[in-house]
Amino acid sequence: MTTTADYSVKIPNNVDLHEDRRLQRALESWQPNFLSWWESMGPTLPTEDVYLRTAVNVGREGWAHFGHVPMKDYRWGIFLAERDRERQIGFGQHQGEPAWQKVPGEYRAELQRLIVVQGDTEPASVEQQRNLGATAPSLYDLRNLFQVNVEEGRHLWAMVYLLHAYFGREGREEAEELLHRNSGSQDSPRILGAFNEETPDWLSFFMFTYFTDRDGKYQLGTLKESAFDPLSRTCEFMLKEEAHHMMVGTTGIDRVVERTAQVMTEHDTDDVTAHGAIPLPVIQKYLNFHYSVSLDLFGSETSTNVANYFTAGLKGRWMEGRRKDDHRLTDDAILVDALDDGQIAQTEVAALVGLNTDLRREYIADCQSGVTRWNRILDGAGMPQRLYLPHVAFNRQVGAFAGIETSPTGEQLSAEEWQRRKGDWLPTEVDKTYVRSLMRPVHERGKIAAWIAPPRQGINGQPFDFDYVHLA
């Protein structure tokens, strides 16, 4: 395997695709379908070119090349992290054995399903975000949106490569289906609920890239541990790109909070709507929604499927190598969230069955770091208000708390009281309409919309007023 990407071929790759003519032809026949999907479901704003980074190699010496590229000519491709020929399986019943280079027959269906579900999320977010370019608050933000979009497209390629290369006819059929499902479609929606939600404005986009892409980070992190080495290496490289997506969300919310605090100070008021900023209570409502929807992506608190994935070596834990246990968990236990006689409680279960809870808790701790960061901005501005993560039971549709309603502080509510008060905690139509009213495009170099502060630094050492995007 090479580590440098070969750009002299129709499908850029570092997997020596030219050595497998049959696979190469199959992927080249899928490529026009992908490009057709991109034209019909990708970004709607016409552009001449965009200042994008493109993978040129996956080694430690650097892997990204920046330049102005027409979006339709972006070189989507297949890139796996370097292979460690000494790599051993790090957990489960096959712990200590050499990592698999081929799919074991007994795990074929499970591995294929894991890859399909991961693959389905990648084009879904492009579809959710396709209209956002028309209301970008600056060319810097527009460029970041398009970078996220092309990388989600490349992540789709990464999963499709695995399906084509290792799963035969069924894999090829699943690769086609990844382009046939569409976010929010009544007839063929995306597999996971959060990827059928709309992303109608930039506050939603920043929340999505902070909370939902962060879920993606943790899911990729578990698959990076997989005994199936090509999947592990694929996810390891995808995580490099995923970091940018989360940066967009983290700093985007930074800048919204910063601008709101500025307006509150300038006008000595909490009600910033008259001055074109987003009120802190509305930011909190958007946070509540995206956080709770993203918690559902981790599934139920207990799962025998995930226990079986772990034992088989298909999917590990976050940072498996840093764990101080036996990596088999056959005798370990964990406390998981539960309802006890209708009340929020915890119960002890086998650690293997509670792996979804283990991963969700890693995610929650990570999410809290962003909230701490945003509160630091408020504190620095002399504001007493604080943002917060709502209770884990708030607005849940999956798992132990799907059947109850709670306030963001965890107070259990009747269905009637929830209906009466949910507009205090989740975005209302009035909130959404107001936020959308602010979404007026600013496509002039060096200028930015009034509801968001400029970034502290540009991309790749460029200034904020760099010509990041040339519009058509």
TrEMBL record:
Keywords: Oxidoreductase. One of its GO terms (molecular function) is oxidoreductase activity. It is an enzyme of class 1 (oxidoreductase). Its EC number is 1.14.13.208. NCBIfam families: benzo_boxB. This is Benzoyl-CoA 2,3-epoxidase subunit BoxB.
